[in-house]
């Protein structure tokens, strides 16, 4: 459906769709803008144009329309107390990481807090009615505007005013009445300044009218009335109508302060502190002039660089003023904004990475660093984190708990960026033309090169306006869900006995039987779900090999055998298998909480898998685990096992469970049912979970981590075993360890002996050489390993063979011998692994006739191999160990000729 069509239809019947009691009571007139023709409501007779096209657009900058001044924190107190006075419950913000929706990474609007997806339907669940909430929302679509336009933020506080029209809640009349009174009575804006503009909203098959309210051209909020479903030719009123009024808290603060930008009043003293650190000469009159022009031009031009160019011209700023004042101030605004967003996201458990929602966070941190580098700003990120958390403490005290964790993550991520800089520099140096938007996306996605880095390197001067929206589209909602393939229509819900008495043996009626599949009226077979593998066992004697859930129907798959529909069958669950899987499941919960308390608050379950003999838990964590961390996690888990804590399972209404335990219960992902099954291990761990669990942690006996691995950016896998498998593993592990250490000892001993022998030989070498050269005419045994044959003026021969002698020995001895006796030929034979090697030296006097190379060649042939070398030195060898003596004999004959 086209929004324009809905608007033109609704505008033809303003009495029905737009006219609220307030307009009648206060004498509002309905007018049409002379420029854009939009319809709006005002009590000002002289107004001729809509807020976007009036002369008073952004006139509050430097001249606020209220007597009282409220900064960000105070503005929320005003809003909250106004709504509380008027019967609203003030609800704490929900996490910015949207774990209860599988189609969103981050919370993008206050209404998302109360939306739960069930099947293909979105239902609303309100913890109170009516209510108001200061919801931090993250939006990455127009990051390029942040810091520049004066009013765009990557995260902002949406004042959510929500109501269901029933005996407690209200509908359009009261909503608009309250919003008007909030602006005029509580904030003190003159009634004449408030303008309501007619608009519409549509999404997810529903639509309705909406009234945007403006003061001095600034849109403060938008009251959406979700009212109809169907299409424009045929629509009916929804069963569940909803008031969805969202207003920007930043804007409420800004309009009362009238500062040049919203950034000047929404970060408390931080903006001023940073500007002071840089010593920029801020001329407030100049800033008012410039940012008023920016605000006005923003509606007129699509391209941000055009907006900027025109504002510079209209405000009459010199290049020097731009470079020395505006550009660095824009950088400071951007940095403060991005730091605040990272604080919220990391506090709520998101990690910068190259996947999913982590993309945007990494991008933002890199923008912060690039901007500081480009502008030579030397801010300490930790100081900025401290200042922000201190300032936000009144509204968001929960951020205090994660103060240090946020710093840890930012430090790790900053280090990674610094390390990748030289690589990025290389990539950038190879760019030979100005990159397109697609190039920029590719550069970031595959090489981590951000456009801000390119700006810092002066490769580009501006970031194209479509870059962030494109990137955000690519990564915003890729969360996917697989769809059921089988059609089991008409069958009733299967009664799940494993949530009740959980009998090992039971009888059931066969409702449907086809191929190898059986549907029963009731079952105690656990169906695969929540990472827990299915039960096995038998149905009527046939093996059950798989069990799966399709909607609320459980399907059993048999290995073979046919079962008749209508029969009553007897079923047996393999309780040994179930018991082992169950221990692994409870262990998963224990390890998850153990990891969080050892590593940090950013640890969440990413996914899990529990089989009979092994299991794994994937957690969100920035780095691979160290041995020390693994030991600590395992020890903590086993201390929980040892304490024999009770595992309790209770069902709660979803809203109650969320309010009572918070969103940490969604470790295993979203729960698409109204009643949530809460599994708690005393005060150690609480999770929403549909799996099977032990009653006492002591049943687990032991948890052993068998392996850990970083499987993707920001995710670490922990493989483990529990119960008897863990005991066996530990026993085997001990045996392995003992064997390994015995082997190591043997090896070390052997090495040591060898080493000692070598040392001895080295010391012996000079004496041996002396003894050999001193040998008398004839055959001499120097010892049992060395034989020498000498005859003056004729070739002499020395051979050596022993297990103790290695290559080093033979080379050393051969060298020295032919040096001392130029008539000497040396032949050393020794074993080296499965080979026999020979080393030959020939002295200067004999070398011409008795070349070492020739001798080595022949000797090697005897040994069944090959060899060769020079006149003086040669080596060779073979594999035939039985020919060692033959080889020496052959060499001797070659030398002495006998
Ligand atoms: Zn207009
Ligand atoms: Zn679980």
Q: Total number of β-strand segments?
A: 33
Give the quaternary arrangement of the chains: single chain
* Percentage beta strand: 15-25%
Helix/strand structural class:
alpha+beta
User: What would the average pLDDT be, to the nearest integer?
Assistant: 90
Low-confidence stretches: 478-485
In this structure, how is the largest beta sheet organized? 9 strands, mixed
Strand order of the largest sheet: 1-2-8-9-10-11-7-6-3
Helix amount? 25-40%
Distance between the first and last residues' Cα? 110 Å
Bound small-molecule species: zinc ion
- How many helical stretches? 24
Overall geometric form: elongated
**Backbone CA Rg:** 40 Å
Your description of this structure?
- There is one protein chain.
- The protein is of the alpha+beta class and 898 residues long.
- The protein contains 24 helices and 33 strands.
- Helix 8 crosses helix 11 (319-347) and helix 13 (381-392) crosses helix 14 (403-430).
- The termini are far apart.
- Mean pLDDT is 90; it is low at 478-485.
- It binds zinc ion (2 copies).
- One zinc ion binds at residues 530, 585, 589, 668, 687, 689, 691.
